[in-house]
Amino acid sequence: MVTGVADQERDLLREAAEWFARADAEDFTEAERRRLETWRRRSPAHDEAFERVCRTWGATDLAVALESVPPADMPTRQRLHRRRRIRWAAAATLLVIAGWWALGSNFLITLRSDYATATGEQRTIHLPDQSSVVLNTNTALVSHVEGTSRLIHLLQGEALFQVRADATRPFIVEHAGHRVQVLGTEFIVRERQDITTITVVHGVVQVTSTNPASSSIQLTAGQRVSIGPNGAGPVSQVAAADATAWTRRRLVISDQPLSEVIDEIQRYHSGSIVIWNPSAREIRVTGIYDLTNMAETLTVLAKTLPIHMDRLTDRLIILR
User: Fold this and answer.
1) 301-315, pLDDT tens digit by residue?
2) SS (H, E, C) the chain
3) Residue after which a domain boundary falls, among 112, 143, 163
């Protein structure tokens, strides 16, 4: 799927940019260097992402800028600070390129969709059968709800479906070869990097796959399952209030690593957020955060966690 590839490339470039910036730090340790080498060896795509960051850093325009910024009479501490900011800017260039790729993919998907939302936007649509759908940030879908058909194709993103019961017309949501079928219920379908996650808020849903080797899964209220290229994971329990918190513009985090929290916040933030220090990625986070003001949410995280935040531009934030 195009969005999955674009997301993977963007995420790889973001990780590569973080490693690139970290490797220039004075306190970059030998253990971190070994972890960087291990990260690069994960796949050819990992290594290429890091090489792309390095090539961007070596571009003529950036090299000239680096040499011209810190004058000889500038104090050493200030000169180092300016150099560090420019190195971050080089990494940011890659993030911008990754953003262009993602935007290009999103643009094509939006053209195909009947309904779509932009970054940070949420929207409620009412279908002809009196069912409704709440679209979360960066979501697009195609609707075929007419006559005897009630079929939705989720192209990307996340949506909460509130289905009006009709025993003669099952309501079906499809994504990446997976099909969720119900008669009348409330459930959430989310896609990310070829992983489809289904969460049931009320009622019962039946999840099937185009893969004949995969068996169908029945989910009841408070249950969730994620399905990827290797099949379905275990069915887990989830509180309905937490699962639907985004519809109230809240982000509920329970003992998750900072890297996952930032990935979630990134969905609602139109710029790029970089965790400069890889060790900070594992800091555990618990809390309820406001999705209506990402700047304030990031400020709260910086104040309550052992991290520091730098806003290099309105669209580029560094956590270290």
Assistant:
1) 999 999 988 876 666
2) CHHHHHHHHHHHHHHHHHHHHHHCCCCCCHHHHHHHHHHHCCCHHHHHHHHHHHHHHCCHHHHHHHHHCCCCCCCHHHHHHHHHHHHHHHHHHHHHHHHHHHHHHHHHHHHHCCEECCCCCCEEEECCCCCEEEECCCCEEEEEEECCEEEEEEEECEEEEECCCCCCCCEEEEECCEEEEECCCEEEEEEECCEEEEEEEECEEEEEECCCCCCCEEEECCEEEEEECCEECCCEECCHHHHCHHHHCEEEEEEEEHHHHHHHHHCCCCCEEEECCHHHHHCEEEEEEECCCHHHHHHHHHHHCCCCEEECCCCEEEEC
3) 112
